[in-house]
């Protein structure tokens, strides 16, 4: 039996896309340094279908903080790489499984939160972010990390909790700045440089 389209599907999609476009245009005109697009703001209409951002997002050249939360976002446009002033980016509670190569051009990004998505591996562009200090990968179907995660020489905090993570976390001399890591289980070897280790919500000071 064929699926019946939701009677308000087109209306909802139009409302959501229109609201997102309005917020982006407003941010562009007002030269905002911070922008939040979240499901809480769209609560008047439920989100049924996946959502994509317009290329216009790349024209918000003054943005330093961007939060796109819980709107079923499936991908980012290539233009995201133009946001070179961005320092904080939250993309949690979406449907992301990959990032465009241009993401690696966010050279000033210090904090990235992509928890509660569909990543099975760490997207390559993340390893090209020289200023990244805080990375939240929790609650993804993440099974491992690439060797070149050690290129994140300024990374201080790494959250891998609630991931299907196999192997040891990246620590030691290859990641000298890493001080805080949260894990799901007992993957705790080679953590000599850490100051804080969190296992299942319990914080342990490492001396």
Layout of helices and strands, plus pairs?
Blueprint lengths: L8 H22 L3 E5 L12 E2 L12 E5 L3 E3 L12 E3 L20 E3 L20 E3 L20 E3 L20 E4 L12 E4 L2 E4 L2
Parallel strand pairs: 1-3, 2-4, 3-5, 5-6, 6-7, 7-8, 8-9, 9-10
Antiparallel strand pairs: 10-11
Walkthrough of the structure:
This protein is an alpha/beta fold. Helix content is 11%, strand content 19%. It has one helix at residues 9-30; strands at residues 34-38, 51-52, 65-69, 73-75, 88-90, 111-113, 134-136, 157-159, 180-183, 196-199, 202-205. Strands 1-3-5-6-7-8-9-10-11 form a nine-stranded mixed β-sheet, with helices on one face. A two-stranded parallel ribbon has the order 2-4. The longest helix has 22 residues, at 9-30. The radius of gyration is 18 Å and the shape is globular. The termini are far apart. The model is unreliable at 1-9, 186-190 and 201-207 (pLDDT under 50).
Beta-strand proportion: 15-25%
The helix/strand order is HEEEEEEEEEEE
Structural class of the secondary structure composition? Answer: alpha/beta
Distance between the termini: 62 Å
Low-confidence stretches: 1-9, 186-190, 201-207
Question: Would you tell me the overall average pLDDT?
Answer: 81
- Helix content bin: 10-25%
Globular, elongated, flat, extended or rod-shaped: what is the shape? globular
Q: How many distinct beta strands?
A: 11
In DSSP terms (H or I, runs of 4 or more residues), the helix count works out at 1
Question: What integer value in Å does the Rg equal?
Answer: 18 Å
Spatial strand arrangement across the major sheet: 1-3-5-6-7-8-9-10-11
Largest sheet, strands/sense/barrel = 9 strands, mixed
